[in-house]
Queue: 2 jobs
Job 1
Amino acid sequence: MSIKEKASTKEFPEIKEYHATSCGIFFKRKKLLCTKNSPYQKIEVFENEYFGRILILDGLVQTTERDEFFYHEMLVHPAFVAHPLPQNILIIGGGDGGGLKEILCYPIEQVYLVEIDPLVVEVSKKYFPWLLPSLKDKRSKLLIADGREFLKETDRKFDVVIVDSSDPVGPSLPLHEKDFFEDLKNCLNPEGVVVTQLGSPLYHLDSITKKNIFLKKLFKLVFFYLAPVPTYPGGSWCFAFLSDKVGPFAIKRNPPSGLKYFNLEIHQAAFALPAFMRSVLCKT
Amino acid sequence: MSIKEKASTKEFPEIKEYHATSCGIFFKRKKLLCTKNSPYQKIEVFENEYFGRILILDGLVQTTERDEFFYHEMLVHPAFVAHPLPQNILIIGGGDGGGLKEILCYPIEQVYLVEIDPLVVEVSKKYFPWLLPSLKDKRSKLLIADGREFLKETDRKFDVVIVDSSDPVGPSLPLHEKDFFEDLKNCLNPEGVVVTQLGSPLYHLDSITKKNIFLKKLFKLVFFYLAPVPTYPGGSWCFAFLSDKVGPFAIKRNPPSGLKYFNLEIHQAAFALPAFMRSVLCKT
């Protein structure tokens, strides 16, 4: 549809994210709500007429009020409908709390949210409505710590681990490396499931392919799945579902009611891979 | 991934498409290849470093060299793997020839390409490598005509009709209305299948919902399906599969080899609808 620039939005500054050096997404910034520098990254929240509040870390969109459900529902529910008994849960990263709120829909015992940057949590508490109630839930344990260090030191074992990292630059870089996944495996119960975001199948296929090689050495079961995320590069996102014992297709429970993207048909469908992904991921 | 603006791309003009009044996509225009005004619309082709050649009609991205396969494969192959014997084919719109090249992969008898704007065909012949060989194929019949008028006047019947319209503004407006689909139904063989693009599930859900109401009155079988299209609004696109007799799930043949997006797993998966679409499309 031909959308002309409204007179009212013309005056708003334009915020751009490059997806490659020659293209990207832009948003009119109706209101700047917050801009802070932590020791780890630059954190900004602004308001956009269409997407509502948008969280930006080091210039990259992390979450928006309007489309967060695509990403967070698909980050969490595939593991939770497939795991036989998800009781002890770990989220690494995800300080905005979008994944946490989805996890708390299930009758779990405890969920650790291990976020390296306390300022992401503080800012998200203030600007995103879901985080504060999720942290008040007695089952939630917030730890401000380096996810990698936490894994090395903890003697806890987890049923489901969700790696909600930002992209492999800045503080999230170690969360994309082989050593991290080895440590992670050591903290899993035998029936444990790990889900991690892997980036855009269009823009990041090389890095997905590289991870596939070491993930297949570490885990007996490696599945990739996809979901649309309108404000992420290319509009579609890749996740890995990793386990030694639990595959994604034997459904153990229904998802909670009231979800906006996920359902059990979508669950099965998300694991179908396009020809261009199959041809590189199934060779390795 | 943090992508900085390269010095080399800074000088290139920025081409923007608004998806709502406050957000959209941008491309650096490395080289302007063509800009023409037809009686129907403004036609532009430019070169972008990442997406290659991009065809723009009235300011909206129609196709790019790099990502056209998502859209064109998903526009064509679902109907062709499901129809019992697709011999006589009609494309309405689609003057860029992306759909035509996919159709010609099958052993069909004849395909009519009915495009209203001869200048779209001329420009696409020059700048997109697939159109000219497709038009030279003896099975292809190019007609420069109003698709709606063609349907009213022809006494031909078709097995598969592909409506590859642009959005419901400008010359494509009538291709989105009930009368058009009534005429279209009159030109179908009893086992005929129609596929039409319906827009973005995020941005155009209202118009998809309205069409659903009259499509369900016209066709016994109405299925919606989805595909990622990185350069279209929201990065994901909706199509309808319409028929009185032929559903999409009983596969009649394999797709051609060498496809980049489509395969039979993707075919089944594409028909799974997100919760927010099901809740509005299954009520009506």
Job 2
Amino acid sequence: MRVIVLGADGYLGWPTSLHLSARGYEVVAVDNLVRRRWDTLCGTSSLVPISTMERRVARWAAETGRTIQWVRLDLRNRADLTELITRHRPDAVVHFAEQRSAPYSMIGAEQAVETQVNNVVGTLNLLFALRESAPECHLVKLGTMGEYGTPNIDIEEGFIEIEHNGRRDRLPYPKQPGSFYHLSKVHDSHNIMFTCKTWGLRSTDLNQGVVYGCNTPETQRHPELRTRFDYDDIWGTVLNRYCVQAAIGRPLTVYGRGGQTRGFIDIRDTVRCIELTIANPPQPGEYRVFNQFTEQFSVGELAERVREARRAHGLETEIVHLPNPRAEAESHYYNAKHQKLIDLGLQPHFLAQTLIEDVIQTVERYRHRVRVETIEPRVDWRKGALVSLRSRRAGDRSRRARSTLGR
Amino acid sequence: MRVIVLGADGYLGWPTSLHLSARGYEVVAVDNLVRRRWDTLCGTSSLVPISTMERRVARWAAETGRTIQWVRLDLRNRADLTELITRHRPDAVVHFAEQRSAPYSMIGAEQAVETQVNNVVGTLNLLFALRESAPECHLVKLGTMGEYGTPNIDIEEGFIEIEHNGRRDRLPYPKQPGSFYHLSKVHDSHNIMFTCKTWGLRSTDLNQGVVYGCNTPETQRHPELRTRFDYDDIWGTVLNRYCVQAAIGRPLTVYGRGGQTRGFIDIRDTVRCIELTIANPPQPGEYRVFNQFTEQFSVGELAERVREARRAHGLETEIVHLPNPRAEAESHYYNAKHQKLIDLGLQPHFLAQTLIEDVIQTVERYRHRVRVETIEPRVDWRKGALVSLRSRRAGDRSRRARSTLGR
């Protein structure tokens, strides 16, 4: 089976490429490498050093004898993308190739527009390319649990049966996304749903929770196979950030009251979910949604978990509450369904103290690479970028960044 | 009170500008004139001759002594738009400035992307400009009833109270738009709702039905004040198209079975709805939705109405059914609420035989301008453009159009 992974240079795209290749899928890994440029722009950097895509695929071949084909391509270039789809006629396309940071999308007008254009146009180009050259192909699209927001009723998987004034219908679940990034995923979902219905494409929209962890069995095989690990205010996810704060002896910073509850998933489960989704495609014309997470936590609870893991080693960790830079409810009802991937065979890795310890150990190995000044929030949901996002280390170029990124 | 009308060169933007100016509003009329370029591209043309914006505002001043300020500007240019908002600090902005044809958006990838980028980026730029320079300003945004699709339950005005597993919430009404154009309006709605909640902007989203009619009292004052009248497959709305077909002695073409039911509104009520909305602004931070239509009809019923109006004059009109170029249900439940504008004082012009006769009389005056070849559908929802959209009259340039518009 031939699979194209779009966004294969990212935190999850790369481990997914390896996971699928290890299981015998013929993998074409595609990326425009913009994520590395965004790091330069934001003064951020992966804690774990990562190799070039060329070295990664060469190392993977040397280690396993398996070939991953690497293609540098930007989805906004419709002609190139159509040519790629036509050439490979994949059985499935896994689409990670989006700007995926909520804080980045909230820096200012330029980044909001960039996020929505990049994500919406890339996905539209992909949908047209599939209609033209691979209408049977299964589009596995990464969405986000953040599409739903925090409604006061249970969150279903994509659709909800509504009874209203004595009549019933099964309708798309109402969306209340909380950033221009999350909004872009809602736009994508509507566009994809429409093309499934109208053109008969088939797609699974994976509304993923917040991912944590830094390794999969494949990325651990060699240093050159590692995936990126982000802990900063722009690209880092909350548990990964806490682990970095704990490892460098800083307080864990909880935004606001900490009652914000979300779905979470271990990176090892992400790659397995993608595999299960590909192995169980929808019918032609079907658009389905899986909620891809395994457990719910509040961000305050997660901080406690990290503190407990440290305490088991006799280490004390402070937890502090920062003014919340995001506009979001800090205590709310949250009960999101996540049954469909379990039904397909997912056996979750639940969050354990050992995982937290593993992550902290990894961090400790690279603690000299931590850029402390990138951890505290620099983007406010109401005002945009609060300060220049450029790290001071970047020197002269920071002035240019201030004029383009600052407000 | 100062009002900026964006998209003031269009079918509704121009009569709205006149209606508001006549009632003492200080009006700034803004457009990038792309609608006239799209006509050239599609081989289409307004049946009623229209003047340049310069002549229109000069004529309006001569007729009434009132000034409408005309500004040529593209909303995709964020710097220009921000400067405009900063200079005028309007009390309200009426936003018609979008690509508004569903068939145009379905021609092919280029037009789908153009539609979504134009509409989404223009609106994002406007939201950022308002945050920066006029956060109290009331954004009156034109949406469409087509955002809702045709659910099997009653359509509410923007939000619906849902009871689910013993809990309740008032949530955004689920959207099932039926073209890349309608999708772009759903994207806008989500973006606007978010900025009201997060930045405290205030907005009314007017989900308008299908508009018919060609005159308002203001446009009738002088030939140079007329607004455009479209009857073709790309830009024409269904009742206007039927009137043209009747006037030139052609059969009325109903798409598919004709059971497609939609909300409709007279152009004279559109301008009044905008006025009522401006006069009754929402609270800061409030995002509200009005369904802006006055009656529901199926497209088959509308054809019958036109036939009856002709029969009253002893004229027989044929009705034929064409294969439906759109992907849509041809018989379905439809009951959409439209109470909020009535509550604000709208007294609807219901569809009457006299209105149909008036429109047909107007058409007869310009029947020499009808381009018959642009009436039958040239865009299929499943396949895109079926033929070159360029009128044969355009001569040599049609070859270029074929290569850019055809599939």
